[in-house]
Amino acid sequence: MLLQPPVLALLLMSALEVAIALAVIPFAVSIVRHWDLGDASERQVRLERRTRLVSTLVAFAMGLQILTLPVLVFTADRLAAQLSGAMCAVGTLNANAYGFAALSAQMVAFFAAVAWLALDAMDVSVPTYPLTRIKYVAALVLAPLLALAAGLPVAFFAMLEPSVITSCCARVFASDAPSVSGALAAWPAGPAMIAFYVSLAAAVMFSLHVATGRRGRASAALAGGAGLVAFASVIAGVVSFLAPAVYDDVLHHCPFCFLKAEYHHQGYLIYVPLFVATANSTWLLCASLAARVPALEDVLPRSQRRWAAVAAAGFMLVALISSIMLARSHVTFQ
Amino acid sequence: MRRWLNRQRSLADVALASLGRRRTRTMALLVVYALVVSVVAAVMLYAQAVRREAGRVLAQSPAVIVQRLQAGRFALVPDTYAEALRAIRGVQSVEGRLWGYYYDPVLKVAVTVMVAPEGSAHVVQDGHARVGPAVARAKGLSAGGQLLLITTARDVLRLTVDELLPDESAVLTADLILISAADFRALFDHPAGFYTDIALSVANPAEHRRVAEKVTTRMPDTRAIVRDDIARTYAATFSWREGLVLVAFIGVLAAFALFAFDRASGLSADETREIAVLKAVGWDAGDVMAMKAWEGALVSAVAFAAGYLAAYLFVFYVPAGPFDGALRGWTVVRPRIRLTPDTDAFQVATLFVLSVVPYTAAILVPVWRAAVAEPDVVMRG
């Protein structure tokens, strides 16, 4: 099913990402090998001039990668109308072996792209470009990941057959399904709620700690790590209890259906702040790693405070909106 | 934050002033850009509207249609099947249908001849007919006129045309002729006690497929067509055709990207001097790139809005645009349908990716080249 406009848009973005990732490799290798700001040779001057272009190109590719994830989910949701048995994106992604693999790869590539953009932002904030070499090593490491994340959706849509009867989300996220999704759906609401709120509280607390003062590497690392844990526990909580609460149906655990119009797009109220907050947590984690670089000592604390404040606000919003959803629900959890 | 916003506002100011100084070049780019956006947008808007129209029509069609097959070919259904179908749990009502295709030797086109369901407002008496707007137009018929049909036995069936079927239902009735059951059987030499197919209505949408399975299990010589499957097929067909038309425009997009690249690469003498002056007064390459990015963003925003608006007006207010044939197909008795605008954020986002992303990618390298140029080299020419 490649000849669908959203799929064509996805292919265009993926093709650009891969083309840029591959084109950057020779330059990244020469940066890693020869970059030396103290050197006044012609080669170093050429590298310094080109690094801005290459950084911009890689940042553009990473930006496209960040956009690709929601486009993949929306496209899968749209194509559900053309597949027998599919009710939402889950049914489409479940139609062949590449669907959920593509989604997983996109999620990993999304946060990897976010991390790379953080490195780039920190690097260009100082005139001596202290993270340039690390940034290009990261670009080299990310190139295969980007290629994989771009290739899997292509394989998925190319193999997607409209005649295939797929399973809807009710089957995939059934508590008796022998899979990770089934295990999450079967997770009792009580422990899931505790993990959900405790992890969110920890992420908010640690982030606020960084946001309110000039803190060190450990605080930033703790806040970043807590943010990633909160992300995982919120996703698990959505499947376990939040989605059933929104649907008013204890058997309906789908984490995608509540993005649809019939549920007033309520999912966005959770996912947008969650992804923004987690992206900022990722930046905090990167900042904690970059804090060893002496040149960043002056600029990093200010950026860290900003990122931590956004992360704290995002996680607070997730907790608040989830609580409102639970309060409005008619479902009673055991 | 305020500092950042002030910087962006200043950069946008400079970018806008710079675009204003090169009015002719900017206008040329805007026109070509908007044209490209409008072509892609028109295809997408048209396909979405046709999909919606098909969905609206199919929502009124029977939940399950039962057809009989004999030696792999379509066969008439005995009326005894209707009784057996009525006994299936979940089936609300059963209606034997009489319909067929009549090849009109004058128009050289097949039209649909149908007997209106009993109890409907469209039931016609023997010797009378109601015709759809496209048939009426093609044959020059009006209420009270005579419709002549040639029967299978080569006799002439004379029918008086009652009032025409309304234009509002054209998407369903454009090529339709409604006649009585007796006239239908006479026209096609259709045996009594047989239907063309049987339509089932099933109250619970979740049971449509289950009912269809029961039908084919109990009557192995039948096939049951579920409405959802027809809807899915239509959605897939229109989306596929839409994609096919868009693929045909890939060359246009590539040509436009090349044009944008070429235009951004070939800086005019004024532009290079402007950049050199900016760098001489203290701007660094990053500032120049940001200013150029603002130029690109402003051009993209205006071209995207203008292109989308033009496509919207073209699709919904200009009848029978060029995509009509490609997406809806060809026929002499084509229904005149007024498409209802149907757009959403995802469609706009898809269009944005298909049109703005190639432009942005195309100007990145030229923008960098402009930004890293040394002021003294540029000023010396």
Major beta sheet summary of chain A: none
Strand portion of chain A: under 5%
User: What is the general shape of chain B?
Assistant: elongated
Unreliable spans of chain A are none
Element order, helices and strands of chain A?
HHHHHHHHHHH
Evaluate the radius of gyration of chain A.
Answer: 22 Å
Shape of chain A: flat
Written overview of the protein:
Helix content of chain A is 74%, strand content 0%. Chain A has 334 residues and is mostly helical. Chain A folds into two domains: 1-168; 173-334, no CATH class. In chain A, helix 7 packs across helix 9 (217-247) and helix 8 (189-211) runs antiparallel to helix 9. Chain A is flat. The mean pLDDT of chain A is 89. Chain B has 381 residues and is of the alpha+beta class. Chain B has 14 helices and 13 strands. The chains are: A mainly alpha (334), B alpha+beta (381). The interface between A and B is medium-sized, with 29 and 32 residues.
Present the secondary structure layout.
The complex is a heterodimer of chains A (334) and B (381).
Chain A: H1 5-34, H2 42-79, H3 89-93, H4 98-124, H5 132-159, H6 169-172, H7 180-186, H8 189-211, H9 217-247, H10 266-290, H11 300-328
Chain B: H1 2-21, H2 23-58, E1 64-70, E2 73-75, E3 77-78, H3 80-86, E4 91-97, E5 99-104, E6 109-115, E7 128-131, H4 133-139, E8 146-150, E9 156-161, H5 170-173, E10 176-179, H6 181-188, E11 194-195, E12 197-202, H7 208-218, E13 222-226, H8 227-248, H9 250-265, H10 269-280, H11 285-317, H12 323-328, H13 345-372, H14 375-380
Parallel strand pairs in B: 6-10, 7-9
Antiparallel strand pairs in B: 1-2, 1-12, 1-13, 3-11, 4-12, 5-6, 7-10, 8-9
Helix pairs in contact in B: 1-11, 2-8, 2-9, 2-11, 2-13, 9-13, 11-13
